[in-house]
Write a structure and sequence with these properties.
single chain, alpha/beta, VC0802-like, Rossmann fold, 2 domains, 11 helices, binds S-adenosylmethionine
């Protein structure tokens, strides 16, 4: 049994990681995908499922960052204990010397302060063990290794997981152009989920940048698998995985092009942003389903009640001269020209957000990269 994983079991333990604040909606998503024994964890949801469920989760989840299978847990409070614990596992039965590995670490511990260093110790233990038993060692390869491993350290608890996804699932394969201060696709999908938008109103991003929110909205509405355009998952490298199941998943879950067409509209005042959005829509294969136009929000008025999602500049990565004045003008525009609509605004600039001058009906704490953010909704009567 490779990595002690009961590959044919319907109840393989799994951990789907996510971004801060998205745990509850990931839980709901995993429930709807049939994952069992769900439990909320720190920036993650744990559960059990068959390997087919794990492939499905990778292919369809809009909110998971990575899906791992835990295969070893032990205690260590020193580098030596960490090394010995990893060395004691039968790595030579699982990984051939000519194969490649990568190790990624997340560390919250007073015993291990440097996550890179902990990953290095684990790597040393694995390659030493295989070299000692086989006379040759696997090499490290960060891009698409044969086996991608995750090391989680929480205080003195060490957990090793096989990373079934490989690269983070925000890499959906459609971002041809990275916009300035673009949202993570996972965070964008979370915002769309929180908005509750279901196609009954137009969906509008008036400051769309490179179009992440628009694409995630369209992918959700037209039931397009989140990873429809992604090239590779780490599990595709494993010979113990049933490739027929994988082919079946890809042919079973297809975009629903028969759905009634809805207005998904993007605007930005910058020509560069317009080009980025258009390129990404093309790459996402939904160019005909989302309309974009160059227009500044000050001149943008919509007659039909809509759902707005906005990621305005925070004055962090994108600087603005008078950030409070800018947010105040957003508020004025919303009050006067968007009656009947609901606006969802994410920003890290809470002081500026107050200048909007509208009472939020919901406040959801999130993180955009390292920035603490609030997603607030405003019902415009
Ligand atoms: C933080 S970026 C949006 C990033 C986008 N969510 C993405 O994922 O790529 C903010 C965008 O707002 C646009 N913007 C700033 N002020 C604007 C205004 N008054 N009207 C329209 N767009 C504006 C900028 O050109 C920029 O593309």
């Amino acid at each position: 049994m490779k990595f002690n994983i009961p590959i044919d079991s319907p109840d393989i333990p799994l951990v789907a990681t996510t971004l801060f604040g998205l745990e509850n909606i990931l839980f709901g998503e995993m429930q709807s995908l049939g994952i069992k024994n769900l439990q909320l964890a720190n920036r993650a949801v744990t559960g059990t499922g068959s390997f087919k469920d794990i492939m499905k989760l990778n292919y369809l989840s809009r909110l998971a960052v990575k899906v791992g299978i835990p295969f070893s847990k032990f205690k260590a409070t020193s580098e030596k204990q960490l090394y010995d614990g990893v060395y004691s596992l039968p790595w030579e039965n699982w990984i051939k010397p000519e194969e490649t590995i990568a190790i990624e670490s997340s560390v919250w511990s007073n015993y291990f302060k440097h996550s890179q260093y902990a990953a290095l110790k684990v790597k040393d233990a694995i390659v030493d063990r295989i070299r000692d038993r086989k006379g040759a060692r696997p090499s490290i390869q960060l891009q698409d290794p044969n086996y991608s491993l995750l090391l989680n350290i929480f205080e003195g608890e060490i957990q090793l997981l096989l990373n079934t996804s490989g690269e983070s699932l925000h890499k959906r394969g459609y971002k041809k152009v990275m916009g300035e201060a673009a949202l993570s696709e996972i965070l964008a999908a979370g915002i769309i989920e929180f908005s509750g938008w279901n196609g009954e109103t137009p969906m509008i991003d008036p400051m769309c940048g490179s179009g992440t929110l628009l694409i995630e909205a369209a992918y959700k509405y037209y039931e397009i698998p989140s990873q429809w355009r992604r090239k590779k998952f780490n599990f595709e490298n494993w010979d113990f995985v049933n490739s027929k199941d994988w082919d079946n998943i890809k042919s079973e879950y297809r975009p629903n092009w028969d759905k009634t067409k809805v207005d998904i509209l993007g605007f930005d005042r910058s020509m560069k942003a317009m080009r980025a959005t258009s390129d990404n829509l093309l790459e996402a294969k939904i160019f005909d389903l989302v309309k974009v136009d160059i227009l500044s929000f000050e001149n943008n008025t919509q007659v039909v009640p809509s759902t707005l999602v906005m990621n305005p500049p925070y004055d962090e990565r994108l600087a603005i001269d008078d950030v409070q004045g800018f947010y105040q003008s957003i508020g004025n525009q919303l009050k006067h020209h968007w009656k009947g609509s609901t606006a969802w605004i994410i920003t890290s600039n809470e002081i500026a957000l107050k200048s909007i001058g509208l009472k939020p009906s919901q406040k959801i704490p999130l993180k955009n990269g390292p920035l603490n953010c609030k997603l607030q909704s405003f019902k415009l009567f």
